[in-house]
Design a protein that fits this description.
The protein contains ten helices and nine strands. By secondary structure, it is of the alpha+beta class. Strands 2-3-7-6 form a four-stranded antiparallel β-sheet, with helices on one face. The protein has a three-stranded mixed β-sheet with strand order 1-4-5, with helices on one face. A two-stranded antiparallel ribbon has the order 8-9. Helix 4 packs antiparallel against helix 5. The chain binds 3-thiaglutaryl-CoA and flavin-adenine dinucleotide.
């Protein structure tokens, strides 16, 4: 891959809305991505391998549990800082952001929010440094958009629980030490339970053949009569609102992350349009190419303002799940459209690994699907504004 010459667009001086601390965190993560991620990521994506050596650095830049309190090993940051970290990581690659999203919002968040003090002390500090990696098991082979129908069960056996079932499409599963798993108990209530690698009957086969998110490890979680100690149950939540509460946090992070991918595509296409000569002049001088770039920067600017405002609301504990759905849906869709247009602007070079655009474009096909599909988020907005539930 060519040298990383990324310059972040900021057409509306959104930087003025950020605090010095937020800018410092953003710039630190950006520098880390330039140094550690950009030089290697294309190669790992081509080989469909997760670059495990990045885990330590991700912990050091505060990407694991940015908003978890310092006393549990987190960085104790605000929500906009969390968003900016996700933006910079996804500027490098959606798979790297995915790893951090899952660890922070889908593993540390539920242990912090729904766990007891003993669970917090046992797991959070090790997850914050990356010494332990985690994954989140909600989706099943026959229950994706409708997780309430899940078939995985935990049965109370007196001195332990017995876990049976299977989860599919689980990010980080192949190497995670810890899995936060959602399953139904004898009463049919969804409960969260922490499963550890090494428990008998628990396996995590890797999913191969992905054309998207190739630098992220995806797998299944198989539970065949797994005995889980009683103390591993998350005591403070019951029902689908448990996993959906985690998704609020992860979806919010994705609304920032997708902007990173979009910015990288825009920046690459802009530079290419200034350097590539056809018909005796830079292609950036042609109106059709200018239309693409003008629309890209407009959409990025709108997305920045949406994410920033949502961050303010989140910091004030006023962001609603439907507002988060709107931002996730809009910003990921914006990014995928920009990736497609940017790829065309690079002509044949756009399909190669010399430039990051094709990788971003393929990655975003996962991002627009996971954490609730594009259509599911539209229906959440539709329900919110009309009051009618289109799911049932
Ligand atoms: P519904 O009856 O609407 O709600 C059930 C209960 O949940 C509450 N609730 C929420 N609570 C917190 N946050 C939210 N966003 C919530 N949405 C709903 C609701 O109030 C109710 O509570 P209670 O107390 O009355 O019981 O549920 P439903 O079965 O009709 O489903 C609603 C629907 C379709 C919106 C939901 O299931 C959904 O969002 N589906 C999409 C599934 C999804 O997003 N899966 C993601 C899997 S994880 C993943 O993809 C990780 S990728 C990570 C990476 O690599 O980056
Ligand atoms: P389905 O639910 O079968 O949907 C198929 C199509 O039908 C979609 O277009 C959908 O929008 C549409 N549809 C469904 N219901 C409706 C409706 N009511 N009205 C209109 N249209 C509808 N899950 C986890 O639990 N943990 C993870 O870490 C995780 N990581 C992932 C990583 C990757 C790379 C991918 C691809 C997925 C991951 N997922 C994970 C799973 C992801 O959340 C699901 O793929 C997603 O929720 C969609 O479920 P599904 O694939 O079963 O599609």
């Amino acid at each position: 891959m060519a040298t990383d010459r990324f310059i972040a667009p900021d057409y509306y001086q959104v930087d003025d809305l950020l605090t010095d601390e937020q800018k410092l965190i953003r710039d630190t993560t950006r520098a880390w991505v330039k140094k550690e991620v950009s030089p290697i990521i294309e190669d790992y994506a081509q080989r469909a391998e997760f670059p495990k050596q990045l885990i330590k650095g991700l912990g050091e830049v505060g990407a694991f549990g940015p908003y978890i309190p310092v006393e549990y090993g987190g960085a104790g940051l605000d929500q906009i800082s969390y968003g900016l970290i996700m933006q910079e990581l996804e500027r490098g690659d959606s798979g790297i952001r995915s790893t951090a999203s899952v660890q922070s919002s889908l593993v540390m968040y539920p242990i912090f929010t729904y766990g007891n003090e003993e669970q917090r002390r046992k797991y959070l500090p090790k997850l914050a440094t990356g010494e332990w990696m985690g994954c989140f098991g909600l989706t099943e082979p026959d229950h994706g958009s409708n997780p309430s129908g899940m078939l995985t069960t935990i049965k109370d056996k007196g001195d332990h629980y017995l876990l049976n079932g299977a989860k599919m499409w689980i990010s980080n599963a192949p190497f995670a030490q810890v899995a936060v798993v959602w399953a139904k108990n004898d009463e049919g209530d969804i409960r969260g339970i922490i499963v550890e690698r090494g428990m008998e009957g628990f396996t995590t086969p890797e999913t191969h053949g992905k054309w998207s998110l190739r630098a992220s490890a995806t797998g299944e979680l198989i539970f065949d009569n797994v005995k889980v100690p009683k103390e591993n149950l998350l005591p403070n939540v019951k029902g689908l609102k448990g996993p959906l509460g985690c998704l609020n946090s992860a979806r919010y992070g994705i609304s920032w992350g997708a902007m990173g991918a979009a910015m990288d595509c825009y920046d690459t296409a802009l530079r290419y349009s200034q350097e590539r000569i056809q018909f005796g002049r830079p292609i950036g001088g042609f109106q059709l190419q200018q239309k693409k770039l003008a629309e890209m920067i407009t959409e990025i600017t709108k997305a920045q303002l949406l994410a920033w405002r949502l961050g303010v609301l989140k910091n004030e504990h006023r962001a609603t799940p439907a507002q988060i759905s709107m931002a996730k849906r809009n910003n990921v869709n914006m990014a995928i459209q920009i990736a497609r247009e940017a790829r065309q602007m690079l002509g044949g070079m756009g399909i190669t690994g010399e430039y990051p655009i094709m990788r971003h474009s393929m990655n975003l096909e996962s991002v627009i699907t996971y954490e609730g599909t594009h259509d599911i988020h539209l229906l959440i907005t539709g329900m919110d504004v009309t009051g009618f539930n289109a799911f049932t």
